[in-house]
Every structure is written in C-alpha cells, then in structure tokens.
Amino acid sequence: MLVTEKNNMTEEIEELVRRYGRERSSLLPILQSIQRKHKHIPDFAQQEVARLLDIHPVEVFSVISFYSFLNTKPKGRFIVRLCQTISCDLQGKAAVSKAIERELGITFGETTKDNKFTLEYANCVGMCDQGPAMIINERVYFKLTPEKAVQILNELK
Amino acid sequence: MEKNNRKGTVLFSKYTRGEGIKKVLSISREDVLFELRESKLKGRGGAGFPTATKWTIVAAAKSDQKYIICNADEGEPGTFKDRVLLLEYPELVFDGMVIAGYTIGATKGIVYLRGEYEYMLKSLEDYLEQMRKDNLLGKNIIGKKGFEFDIEIRLGSGAYVCGEETALIESLEGNRGEARNRPPYPVNTGFMGKPTVVNNVETLASVPHIIAKGGTWFQKHGTDKSTGSKLFSVSGDCGKPGVYELPWGTKISELLKIVGAENTKAVQVGGASGTCIPKSQFERTLAYEDAATGGSIMIFNESRNMLHILKNFMEFFVEESCGQCTPCRIGNTKLLEGVEMIERGEFTFNYVNQLKELGRTMQVASKCGLGQSSPNSFISILENFKDEIFFQNGNGGTHGK
Ligand SMILES: Cc1cc2nc3c(=O)[nH]c(=O)nc-3n(C[C@H](O)[C@H](O)[C@H](O)COP(=O)(O)O)c2cc1C
Ligand code: SF4
Ligand code: FES
After folding, report:
1. Hey, are the CB atoms on A128 and B115 less than 8 Å from each other?
2. CA–CA separation, B5 vs B11, rounded Å?
3. From CA B217, how far away is CA B210, in angstroms rounded?
4. CA distances from B355 to B332, B334, B360, B397 (A)
5. What are phi and psi of B80, to 5 degrees?
6. pTM of the prediction?
7. The CATH number of the domain covering residues in A78-156
8. Residue of chain B whose alpha carbon sits nearest to that of A139
9. Residue B266 host element (H or E)
C-alpha cells in the first residue's frame, strides 16, 4: 500500500471508531464498513483496527476468518452470491450458475480479471418462495432465469 | 416489495402502530406478564420455550442494564417469514420490542439482522426514525414519565450458527460467533454479561396482538399446547409458495391442499435441521406436540431425488458448523461422505448403520443445536426413503450408473 493510501485508510478507520465507539462490541460494525467499501479487509486495516480498539491483530484476523461475508483477500467490485440451498436448487439454480459462469468466463469461487465480479455460493438467503435467488453486494435478486441473471450482471456498472 | 394484503386470524389481523404500546403503558408489568402467561405463547424461533417464563426471569433480575434482542438471523433453510414480518409488519416487531423493554426493564433493544438482509436496513432504520419522531421510542415514551427505550439494528455477516442465541451474543460482543455452553442462559448472563431476553421476530410480533386483544383471545387459537397461529414459509413443489398464517394443529395434508401441492412425495418440516415426513404421515399435525417447526415447510414431489436433497442438507451443515466441538465438526463431514458413498454405490449397510449411530451420538454430544439437530435429516431421510435410496435403483442408489 502507498503511504497516502495508508493515511487514508487510517483516517477512515478513525472515523469508524468515532462513530461506533472504541469497544470490542464495535468490532463487527467497523469491519463490515471496511468490507462494504473495499470488498476486503487488508492487513494494514486489520492492524489499524486492532491498534485503535486496543486488541491483538490476531484477534481481528480470527474474527474475520469466522464470517463468510468478511475476507482478507481482495474480491471483485460486485460479489455475486447465488443461493445453493435446496429450494433454489430445485427451481433451477444449476442452469443459472452455468449461464453466469459461461458469460463471465470464470467458475464459482473465482474473480474476473478486470476485478469486476467475484462468484460465490451462499446458503439459503430467505427467498426460497421466489428462487432461484442471488445477492449482489447489498441487493437481492430473485425468480432468476439463466437469461435474466446474465442480464442483471451486464447491467451492473 | 409491496405490503401484501395478507389474511390471517392472529398475526395478520388488524393492528395499528403504537396500539400495543399505548395499552401496555396503562397497565402494570405484572399485568403484562399475566397476559403473556395466559396466552401461553411459546418461542417461534424453533425451541418453543414459553415466552412468559423468559420475560419473568429477566423482569425479576436486579441489574443496572438489561437487554431485549430480536433474533432476525433467519438462516434455517426454507425460512423466510421473518423477512415478510420485517418488511411488511415492522410495527408488530418493533412495538413488541418496546413492550418487552417496558416489561423487563430494559432501555435498549437490539435487532440482529442477518447480513443477507442488509437490503432491508435502510427502510427499517427509516421506520425507527419515524417512531422516534412520534415518541414511540426515546425518552418518556408517549408521555410515560421515566420510560426510556431505543432500538439499534446490528448486522450479521453470513454465519448460520449466529442464529443460536449464545453465538448471536458472542457475535454482538465482537467475537467469533461460537456458541457458549448453556447454562448460564442469556436470561441470567446475556449481552455484556447482563440479563437478556432473546426472542425470534415472530414471537415479538405476536406480543402487541396479545396486549391489545388479551391473552385469552390469543389462547383460543391453535391447540391446547400450541396456542395462537404460526407463519409457515412454504417453498418447493407447490402452486403457491409463500408465507401462510395458519392455526397450530393444521394437518400437513391440509396445508398441502392450501398451497396447491400435487404428487407430493415428502415434506421437510423445520428446515435442514428438521425432519423429512413421508406421504404415509401426512395426517400428522403441525404443532409443538407433533411435527414441531420454526415454520420452514419444503415440499418435494414424486420427481425429486431424496438422496440429492439429503446431500444438499449435509453440505449445508458441513459449511455452517462452527467447528468448535468434535461431534459436529467431524460428524457432519462423515455423514456427508456417507451420502456421497451411497450416491456412488460404494457403501455397506453395516457402515450406513454405523453412520446413523454416529448421528444419534451427535444429537446428544454436540455443544449446540446445530450439531444436535443436523443428523435429523440424515436419519429421517435414510429411514423413510430407504426403498428409493437403496433398492429401487439397485445398490448404486438413484445415481448408480
Ligand atoms: C444453529 C441454530 C440456529 C438458530 N437460528 C435461529 C434464527 O435464525 N432465528 C431465531 O429466532 N432463532 C434461531 N435459533 C434459536 C435460538 O437459539 C433461540 O432459541 C431463539 O432465538 C429464542 O427465541 P424464541 O424463544 O422467541 O423462539 C437457532 C438455534 C440454533 C441452534
Ligand atoms: S455443535 Fe457445531 S455449531 Fe454448535 S458449537 Fe459444536 S461445532 Fe459449533
Ligand atoms: S433456498 Fe435459496 S433462498 Fe432459501
């Protein structure tokens, strides 16, 4: 990371700590904010969070590693999470996932070269009555068909 | 998502925002607890613990701070009724929390909203802001001197186990969402070590109706042991999937008719951690005393492959086990491997029986409800559908080449 990037990150985290408080119980909201913005929580950010909350960096890493929506390695600008649980599965999830993979030229678990998309599976996202469903960043999409899913991805800027 | 015109006898019956709060502030805490006991309301999150008992313990506890937590982690596969309540009936959920705060003596309520539902966050926060403006939250709520209460929404980050109440509290405290040993229970040692009530969204949403219309009214619905109504999240093979409010005690066969299900082979009641019910048992009733459920109903028709369904459930548990205790961490992996062996036709009945035995050990030896209930599907599907799985397609199972 460049020095200016580091300074910006420190400022950003200081602001988050001001907003959520210095307590340990603020750890998750702080990490979630960093994740939302940067699509991952870089090493330097982990150190800064640890320093400002006065906990060990290993603790921060350990918490991040527990939650599937937090990650330390970079991901695409759009994290696509297609539901893989049974109700969506029975409603045609496999065809949707194949179409997405074909269109983006990557498989689930990978990120496109231009860093635009990361493909992941999620467990039941609470849309079982209108599956197949997927969540992209903070939005939910449902009643997907292979064609509709690809169209949604193409429209993301 | 629009507010649908839903019909129902209890939860979806008429209610105006603030109605329960107004009523509750005019009666004593003891009276609230009395109505709640009278209603015989039990927890809708799965475990079915009497709500009045929980509230009474925390109300009686002496502490400088207490908490009411709304469990909106809704991660059980096939469950989405809390989504509907939060999106379409936030007045019920939040009024329920205010009533809880008044009754147990808490000034703070926290909603633990699953990360997957972040898209609701904005509208829920706007709703809370409006409640503050209308003095349904904040200080001296609608003129009641000294009654202060506010609600904060906190997000989860994609971990099913965080729906377990002690794991949820760990998560709120900034830790890995690993379940704690119980006891102590949250009612004694909860969030930040303080007495805490953790209730499901639907449990809290029932409370304003009970306060406004009375415990006796509520109790008249449902069965003797399962009072009130239940929201069922219905998905799978049926004409009209969605959320249905039905009285407890409804037969599975009746529900299937209502939702337009045909050629049904099996109904998974209670999600991946529930049990799979075959056609021969469709006259059973949905109730705490019979086929108990937090509301997940997944319907499978004759064309479905039961082993494929079981594999999907076991993959879920392998991914979602927090890994803290051995029976669950290793056990679920072994059960999944077993399903894959059956799929390939490389199994012995001896080994399958050993795996069922392992499942029974997990049910008693796991630390939390995840590991205790994950073998349910394994055992019930292999037992109830053994003809299909082991014999109809030769020993290679339905996938046998
Ligand atoms: C693995 C696991 C996941 C759970 N997930 C939820 C959940 O998403 N929502 C919920 O209300 N209860 C869930 N529970 C049950 C809670 O631990 C707790 O019993 C419940 O929130 C209490 O509320 P109630 O008495 O109103 O039902 C879960 C339990 C386990 C073991
Ligand atoms: S039973 Fe499973 S989820 Fe629960 S504590 Fe043990 S390993 Fe974790
Ligand atoms: S199974 Fe996909 S949303 Fe529930």
Report:
1. no
2. 13
3. 8
4. 10, 8, 9, 17
5. -150, 15
6. 0.96
7. 3.40.30.10
8. B119
9. strand B264-269
For chain B, list the domains and their CATH numbers. 6-219 (3.40.50.11540), 229-301 (3.10.20.600), 306-392 (1.20.1440.230)
| Residue type (1 letter), B126 | D
B236 Cβ below 6 A of ligand 3? no
| Per-residue tokens: A133 | 């469903």
* Distance separating alpha carbons of residues B390 and B401, to the nearest angstrom: 14
CA distance B310 to B379: 10
* Contact residues, B window 38-77, toward A, CB-based 8 Å cutoff: 74-77
Which letter does DSSP use for residue B291 in this model?
Answer: B
Interchain contact, A90 vs B78, CB within 8 Å: no
d(CA B341, CA B281): 28
The complex's ipTM works out to: 0.97
How many Å apart are CA B363 and CA A129, to the nearest integer?
A: 30
Per-residue pLDDT tens digits for B73-123? 999 999 999 999 999 999 999 999 999 999 999 999 999 999 999 999 999
Tokens of B11: 């939860």
Task: Name the residue ranges covered by the structural domains of chain A.
Answer: 3-66, 78-156
Residue A73, classed as helix, strand or coil, is coil
Average pLDDT for runs of 10 along chain B of length 401: 74 96 96 97 94 98 97 98 98 98 98 98 98 98 96 97 98 97 94 98 98 97 96 98 97 98 97 96 96 94 97 98 96 98 95 97 97 97 95 53 37
Residues whose beta carbon lies within 6 Å of some atom of ligand 1: B 43-47, 49, 71, 73-75, 161, 163-165, 198-200, 203, 368-370
CB B48 within 8 A of CB B248: no
- What is the token pair recorded at B324? 């803290």
E-strand ranges in B34-83 read 67-72
Crossing angle of helices A43-53 and A27-38, rounded to 10°: 160
State the smallest CA–CA distance between residue B172 and chain A in angstroms. 6
